[in-house]
Design brief:
- InterPro entries: Crypto/Photolyase_FAD-like_sf, Crypto/Photolyase_N_sf, DNA_photolyase_N, Photolyase_Class-2, Rossmann-like_a/b/a_fold.
- The chain is α/β, with parallel strands linked by helices.
- The protein is built from 19 helices and six strands.
- The protein has a six-stranded mixed sheet with strand order 1-6-5-2-3-4, sandwiched between helices.
- The termini are far apart.
- The structure holds flavin-adenine dinucleotide.
- Flavin-adenine dinucleotide binds next to helix 9, helix 11, helix 15 and helix 17.
């Protein structure tokens, strides 16, 4: 078996050739296409001549579990089940019916495994859960670094600015531009048939994979908080449909992305977050959409320049800059900082200036509950919060304003950080992601520089106001849609 740049061994147990199967514990790349982890698991199954089992599980007790997040994932499970059904791979979707009912399931699946492959996900409880599981199960466990175009492990340093990360990507294109994961690894796949699941299926019954039943079943779960599901979102099919629609109608107008009314952004962040679509598939679709594009058009300049890098239309280059530079500078940050969600992880200049202004008088002061209920004095802020609560998403420009005003109207920068993380992780379909913490960190100065004039509360951290947002954006329709109703 060839060493693979994206694979590292988490638990150094030897491969067990007498095992009955290879196990892929699917936690972050919840899809069947363009997935390095699935490719790796298939490679092992081929090499060892064993069946492959894929375990995709969903816990009830994770800190932000809700009908909203569960429904998104469960729709994905139904899509995955249909795809695996037509392949020799065994697929086991599991949704915990009761708190901790899934305890022991992974160990049971791994007991007779030759090797376990899983996804490398650098944040939230998954980061620690994976490491703890590796130490417990006793089988060899491999982590596959596949959530980005750039392997998180490739840059040997953490970048303070997007510009520096972009320059690194330009300089090291050979490291990350290839080889891509297989577009459709299930096509004409020949492996030993999976047979019966290697676990006690009465103790851990598989989740239903018929959509209606699967979603109905969620009604029986006792979630800590009532946050309703969003209709018709979730799953690889929906992700791919959204990608096609975006490439056909939004991409060419992407320069208007700051206008909520233009509706030209991809809406893919939640699908990317849950791994229901991979960044490689998105990149491929964008490259294919530029007439006569070929890799020879990529600029050889490595100056961190945003325009003229890909040799594509400005709209496409703008989009790829979000998908690659901004999304993955966030991956780079959390990879190097286990304290990514803490005030201490902010740049020194930002901590200093925020501390110096921590006791400034706030023009307004709201609690988490008031923010959550969209009960501030500001109709734009309230509309953004209502968008988050009712749709599970928020337009990027308003998300920046939303964060800046939480900083402005909270008792301290630390309190603001906590409030942003709680609301974003609780309601956003794309929350609990490296980019949750980099977006929220940006509000407090991360990936940014000091600005003047120095202001109350913000100090030298970049300021934003609802008044200038109202002047810049066409907000009438937005305010009507997300008004107090
Ligand atoms: C306070 C705050 C919190 C945020 N929380 C999250 C979060 O929880 N999860 C999340 O994925 N993003 C977060 N972002 C970044 C950004 O708001 C979203 O990625 C973007 O709005 C998603 O919409 P889209 O998929 O239509 O993006 P598009 O404009 O279509 O962009 C394509 C993809 O590029 C990436 N991307 C776009 N903008 C950014 C950005 N500014 N930073 C990093 N990546 C970006 C996303 O993966 C996105 O899906 C946050 C930003 C702020 C200011």
């Amino acid at each position: 078996m060839q060493a693979h740049a994206r694979v590292r061994t988490l638990e150094e147990a030897p491969i067990n050739p007498a095992g009955t199967h290879v196990l892929y514990w699917m936690t972050a790349a919840r899809r069947t296409r363009s997935s390095y982890a699935l490719d790796r698991a298939i490679e092992w199954a081929r090499e060892l001549g064993k069946p492959l089992w894929v375990l995709e599980a969903l816990r009830l007790g994770h800190p932000h579990a809700s009908a909203r997040l569960h429904a998104f994932v469960v729709r994905g499970m139904c899509d995955n089940a249909a795809r695996f059904e037509a392949s020799p791979i065994g697929y086991y979707p599991y949704v915990e019916p009761k708190l901790d009912a899934g305890k022991g399931l992974l160990a049971a699946f791994a007991r007779k495994a030759c090797v376990v492959v899983t996804d490398d996900w650098p944040v939230y409880f998954v980061r620690n859960m994976t490491r703890a599981a590796a130490a417990k199960i006793g089988a060899r466990m491999e982590l596959v670094d596949g959530v980005g175009l750039v392997p998180m492990s490739a840059p040997d340093r953490c970048f303070a600015r997007a510009h520096d990360f972009r320059r690194w990507c330009q300089k090291h294109a050979n490291v990350w531009l290839g080889p891509a994961p297989r577009v459709n690894p299930l096509a004409r796949l020949q492996l030993s048939a999976a047979g019966e699941p290697p676990i006690n299926t009465r103790k851990w019954p598989a989740a239903p994979v018929d959509r209606t039943t699967a979603l109905e079943r969620l009604g029986q779960l006792a979630f800590a908080r009532e946050i309703p599901a969003i209709p018709d979102v979730g799953g690889s099919q929906a992700a791919r449909a959204r990608l096609r629609a975006f490439v056909a109608t939004g991409l060419e107008r992407y320069a208007e992305r700051n206008q909520p009314a233009a509706e030209v952004t991809s809406g893919l962040s939640a699908y990317l977050h849950w791994g229901q679509i991979g960044a490689h598939e998105v990149l491929r679709a964008v490259l294919a959409s530029e007439p006569d594009w070929d890799p020879g058009r990529i600029s050889e300049l490595c100056r961190g320049q945003r325009e003229g890098w890909w040799g594509m239309s400005p709209a496409r280059e703008g989009f790829l800059d979000q998908l690659l530079t901004w999304r993955e500078v966030g991956h780079n940050f959390v990879w190097h900082h286990a304290d990514y969600a803490r005030f201490e992880s902010l740049p020194a200049w930002a901590r200093t200036t925020l501390r110096a202004h921590a006791s400034d008088e706030r023009p307004e002061l709201y609690s988490l509950e008031q923010f959550e209920a969209a009960a501030t004095h500001d109709p734009i802020w309230n509309a953004a919060q209502r968008e988050l609560v009712s749709t599970g998403a928020m337009h990027n420009y308003l998300r920046m304003l939303w964060g800046k005003k939480i900083l402005h109207w909270s008792a301290s920068p630390r309190a603001a950080l906590e409030i942003m993380i709680t609301l974003n992780d609780r309601y956003a379909l794309d929350g609990r992601d490296p980019n949750s913490y980099s977006g929220i960190g940006w509000v407090l100065g991360r990936f940014d520089r000091a600005w003047g004039p120095e202001r109350a509360v913000f100090g030298k951290v970049r300021y934003m106001s609802s008044e200038s947002t109202r002047r810049k954006l066409r907000l009438n329709a937005y305010l009507q849609r997300f008004g107090p109703g």
